[in-house]
Amino acid sequence: MEKRCVITGLGAVTPLGNTVDSFWDGIKNGVCGIDYIKKFDISEFKVKIAAEVKDFNPELYMSKKDVKRNDLFAIYGMAAGVQAFEDSGIDMEKEDADRVGVIVGSGVGGLMTMEEQVRRMDAKGPSRVSPMFITMTIGNMVAGNIAIRIGAKGVCEDIVTACATGNNCIGTAFRNIKHGYLDVCVAGGAEGSICEVGVAGFTNLTALTTEEDPKKACRPFDKERNGFVMGDGAGILVLEELEHAVARGARIYGEIVGYGASCDAYHVTLPDPEGRGGAKAMQLAMKEAGIAPEQVDYINAHGTSTPANDVGETKAIKLALGEEAAKKTAISSTKSMTGHLLGAAGAIEAICCVKALQEGFLPPTINYHTPDEECDLDYIPNQGREAKDAVYALSNSLGFGGHNAVLCFKKWEGK
Q: Do domains 5-247 and 262-402 have the same CATH topology?
C-alpha cells in the first residue's frame, strides 16, 4: 500500500537570510540577495558579483571543532539540517532510527577546500595537506554529518546531478517514504562554491552574467538576460509519512504528491532546445500526482537567466502543459533574488513552493523589464501576487548533463 508524504520541517541558509522566515520574507518582498563578492579579491576577475551568504554564525548549530573540520558547503547544509529537524519536533528517542533517513546532496562538494589544499601542497609540499582533506571535500559529508548529528540509521545518500541535485534528493526521499522504506527522511541540498576557481571556471565556461550592477544582474526570461549568478547556501526539508506525522501531532506544511525525472541526452551544458526532457519530467510529476495540466497553479521555474535555458524551459512548459494551460499558469524564477545555488537550488525553491501554497502568495521574478518574444508566459513580473486558491505547484530543476527533476507539491488542507 502506497503511503502519503508530508513536509514537517524546514531549514534554510541563503543569500536572503539564514532562517526560513528571513529567507521567505525576502522572497515575498522581491529583495535581491546579489552583491559584489566579498570572499576574495575580485580585481582580476571578469565576474565580480555573486549571491553570498551573509552574517552567518555556524556556531549557532555546531561546535567550533565541527566548523574547522568541514568545508563551507557542509557547514551550510548541517546548519539548515539542524534548523529543519528542530522545526519538525521529532524526538529520536521515540523513533526507530533504522526508519529515519538522510538524502542530501551537493552539486560540487568541497571546492573551497580543494582550492586551498592544492595551493598549500604546491607551496609547502604534500606532507602539509590537511588530514581532513578527503572528508572535507567529498559531497556525501552533508548527509553523513546530519545523520550522525540526529542519530538517523536508515538510508543515507548523496545524489549528485549538478543543478538538479536538490530536487533529485527530495524526490528520492519522497519515494522512500511513499513505498514504505522510511518513516522520516531529511532531504535537500547544500552548496559553497563561490571561490576563486569556482567563479573562474564558470566565467570561462561563459555561463555567468557579465552585468556589472548586482541588482540588475539576474533577470530570468527578460530579453536582456545574459547569464546566471552563482549563489551559496542550503535548503533542507523533513519529509514524513502522513500517519506517522499525524500520530505524533506534527505541524504539516504541505504534501509532496509527484516526482518526475528524465535526461535530455543532448549536451553536457546546453538544454534540449525543444524542451523535451524538461517537459517529460513535468509530465511524469503530474501523472504521479494524478492531476491535469489545468490544475497546476504555480511553477517555480529553473529560470537561470541564461539565453538557452529560459527559452528551452518556456518550450518545455508549453509542451508539458499544452499551450492553453501554460498561458494561464503563474510562473516565477526566484533565482532572480537568490542567484543560482547549483546543487542547493532545488531545495530552497522547494521551500518557496511549500510556503507559497501554505500562505497563498506567489513569489515574483524581479528585474523583468523587457519581454522576450520567445519567453511569452506569465512570469509574475517584479511583484508577487496573492493566490489564496492555489493548490498545486511544480518546481523545476534542470542540470548540466541533461538532468531534469520536477517535484509536485500540494497545499495541505487536512487529510
A: yes
Q: What's the pTM value of the predicted model, to 2 decimals?
A: 0.98
Q: CATH for 5-247?
A: 3.40.47.10
- Cell 566579498 -> residue: 38
Superfamily covering domain 262-402? Thiolase/Chalcone synthase (3.40.47.10)
List the domain boundaries for the chain: 5-247, 262-402
Instruction: Tell me the pLDDT tens digit for each residue of 74-104.
Output: 999 999 999 999 999 999 999 999 999 999 9
Residues annotated as catalytic are 163, 302, 340
Considering only residues 270 and 298, tell me which one the structure prediction assigns the higher pLDDT. 298
pLDDT, tens digit, 9 for 90 and up, residues 175-227: 999 999 999 999 999 999 999 999 999 999 999 999 999 999 999 999 999 99
